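Researcher: I'd like a candidate sequence for this fold, 236 residues long. If you have to choose between options at a position, lean toward the conservative one.
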C-alpha cells in the first residue's frame, strides 16, 4: 500500500491518458515497455510473496526447515519493496493507474496469501483452520478493494497523504508472521512440539471436520480488524 491514489478531482485526465497510453502501444510486450521503475519495484514485492508461497510448499514436501525460514523471511523483504515503490514514484515524479493496481495485487500476494500459506505449513491444517485462513485472505482482498475505492474520501494532510487507514492495513499481517517465526524458533510446529494451545474438537469425532487449533482464531480476528470501518490507524 505504498502508492498514493489518483483522486477523482484532479485525476481524470491522468486516468484517461494512462489508459490511452496502453491502448495506443502495440506489440506483444507493450505492457512491459510501459512499466515505470516504480512498477518494477512493486512487482518485486509480488515476487517475494510468490517465492514465500513456494517455499512453504517445499517445506511441506521436504520438511526442510530452511524452506520454512525463507517462507517467513520473504514477506518482510516484500514490505521493503512496498515502502520503496512509493518513494521511487515520487522521486521519478511518475505514477500510473497500472502501478496503483499492481501495488494492491502485490500486497495481497505478499501480505495475504503468503502468511496464510505459511500458517498452513506450520500446522494450521484442519478444515476449520483453513476456513479461518481463507477468511483472512478474503478480508485482505476486500480491505484493499475498499482502500482503492474510498481513499480519495479520506482526509489528507498538507502533503496530500491520507491521515489514517480505515481498518488495519494488510501489511500489518507481518505481525502474524512474527508470531509464526517465534513458534518456529521454539519448535512449536506440526511434527515437533505441536501448535500452542493444542487442538480441540467442536463437533463430531477427533480427526474430523470439527477439529480446530484455537490459535487460528487470531487470523479471524485480524481479518475482522482489516475490514473494520470504525478502526482508524494513523498513517505514518
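Model: Candidate sequence:
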Amino acid at each position: 500500500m505504498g502508492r498514493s491514489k489518483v483522486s477523482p478531482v484532479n485525476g481524470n485526465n491522468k486516468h484517461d491518458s494512462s489508459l490511452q497510453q496502453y491502448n495506443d502501444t502495440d506489440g506483444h510486450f507493450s505492457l512491459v515497455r510501459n512499466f515505470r521503475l516504480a512498477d518494477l519495484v512493486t512487482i518485486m514485492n509480488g515476487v517475494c510473496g510468490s517465492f514465500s508461497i513456494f517455499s512453504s510448499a517445499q517445506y511441506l514436501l521436504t520438511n526442510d526447515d530452511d524452506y520454512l525460514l525463507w517462507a517467513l523471511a520473504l514477506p518482510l523483504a516484500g514490505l521493503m519493496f512496498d515502502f520503496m515503490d512509493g518513494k521511487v514514484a515520487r522521486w521519478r515524479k511518475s505514477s500510473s493507474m497500472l502501478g496503483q493496481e499492481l501495488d494492491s495485487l502485490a500486497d495481497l500476494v505478499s501480505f495475504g496469501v503468503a502468511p496464510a500459506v505459511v500458517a498452513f505449513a506450520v500446522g494450521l491444517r484442519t478444515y476449520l483452520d483453513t476456513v479461518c485462513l481463507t477468511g483472512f485472505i478474503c478480508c485482505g482482498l476486500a480491505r484493499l478493494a475498499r482502500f482503492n475505492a474510498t481513499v480519495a474520501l479520506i482526509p489528507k494532510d498538507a502533503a496530500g497523504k491520507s491521515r489514517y487507514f480505515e481498518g488495519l492495513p494488510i501489511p500489518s499481517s507481518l505481525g502474524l508472521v512474527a508470531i509464526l517465526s517465534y513458534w518456529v524458533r521454539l519448535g512449536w510446529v506440526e511434527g515437533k512440539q505441536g501448535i500452542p494451545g493444542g487442538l480441540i474438537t467442536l463437533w463430531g469425532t477427533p480427526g474430523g471436520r470439527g477439529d480446530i487449533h484455537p490459535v487460528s482464531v487470531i487470523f479471524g480476528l485480524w481479518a475482522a480488524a482489516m475490514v473494520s470501518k470504525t478502526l482508524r490507524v494513523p498513517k505514518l
